[in-house]
Design goal:
Radius of gyration: 23 Å
CATH class of the largest domain: Alpha Beta
Low-confidence stretches: none
Structural class: alpha/beta
Strand order of the largest sheet: 2-1-3-4-5-11
Order of helices and strands: HHHHEHEHEHEEHEHEHEHEEHEE
């Protein structure tokens, strides 16, 4: 049964005019009433009939980007790319950081959808994205960027090639004689982590080496998490000779902890990071990083959103290749 404005007003115990004022922002409504009405709008995924249809058809020239973690320099550069392309195309861009909280992400998408924006670029907090299908099944444009899952239907995707990222980093260390390579990842059960681990495993396979689950450690994508991960990993396996760290904040923490352990980089342990934070080239030793092009991913994501807005059947998955920036921390220069 389709919910109407009258239904919302009845359940909120207010007039239809009050609901209309909340939706359109045409009159000040008390905070309690506004909150009650907005909660019901989100609960029923309510879209005002004629207004919504007209706005959707006419376009509002406003889009949104919802990201899972702004402190990460990769995500920040990706946001810059989206913002730059949005300005070029005459769009306003709303930005929300969910801080890896899935429930907040879901609430945010619901609110943005109800506010009549043209579409959303989403870097999700988890792979649990079936909730998106109630929007995308109505051809509301959602583009997944950086992370993705096939559970979300009718959504184009723009990502780095994460399998190749994991493969290239591991292969680089393997060809320089490292057989026991630890990996510190930021978030579990997301496509970026899963695909990089698959690439890492494939590189090991090509060297006839077994995959050891115990060489994996969660670092929570923070400086403190990276330090704690190194402490745990090297306490468990003090024969690890190389590390691949999947986020720049964790790389900083990893270096700090290795120095506390009096380990020299790369003499005692080689290091490859992901992303290329501003001081990576000037720390001692300079950090070897495997990088994906975050600004290009961001610009491409906005281009794909425009394609989706104009063509509801657009569903491509665009993957951009990584590149390796070789410096002293991996021990080969």
């Amino acid at each position: 049964m389709k919910v109407t404005m009258k239904d919302i007003a009845k359940e909120a115990q207010v007039s239809i005019a009050t609901v209309s004022h909340v939706i359109n922002g045409t009159k000040h409504i008390t905070e309690n009433k506004q909150k009650k009405i907005m909660n019901l709008i989100q609960k029923y995924n309510y879209i005002p009939n004629s207004t919504a249809k007209n706005l959707r058809q006419k376009t509002t020239k406003t889009a949104a980007m919802v990201v899972s973690s702004l402190p990460d320099s990769f995500v920040t550069e990706m946001v810059y790319g989206v913002e730059e392309r949005a300005r070029e195309m005459g769009y306003n861009l709303l930005l929300v950081n969910t801080n890896e909280v899935k429930d907040y992400e879901e609430e945010t998408i619901s609110v943005l959808h109800s506010r009549m924006i043209d579409g959303i670029i989403l870097s999700p907090a988890s792979s649990d994205l079936e909730y998106l299908n109630k929007y995308t099944s109505e051809d509301f444009p959602v583009v997944l960027v950086n992370r993705y899952t096939d559970l979300a239907k009718n959504t184009p995707k723009v990502t780095g090639d994460n399998f190749q990222t994991g493969y290239d980093a591991a292969f680089h260390l393997l060809k320089h004689g490292h057989k026991k390579i630890g990996m510190i990842y930021g978030v579990s059960n997301v496509s970026t982590t899963d695909e990089r681990i698959k690439g890492y495993k494939e590189a090991l396979k090509n060297y006839n080496l077994p995959f050891n689950e115990s060489y994996m450690e969660l670092g929570h994508a923070t400086v403190a998490g990276g330090a704690a991960a190194v402490k745990s990993l090297l306490t468990r396996h003090n024969d690890i000779s190389a590390l691949f760290v999947l986020n720049d904040l964790m790389t900083i923490g990893a270096i700090s902890q290795m120095k506390e352990f009096l380990l020299k980089i790369p003499e005692d342990i080689a290091l490859i990071g992901f992303g290329d934070f501003a001081s990576a080239s000037i720390v001692d030793p300079p950090i070897t990083n495997i990088v994906q092009p975050p600004a290009t991913i961001g610009k491409t994501a906005f281009d794909v959103l425009l394609s989706k807005i104009h063509n509801p059947n657009y569903k491509k998955h665009i993957e951009l290749p990584p590149s390796l920036i070789v410096r002293k921390s991996c021990g080969c220069v």
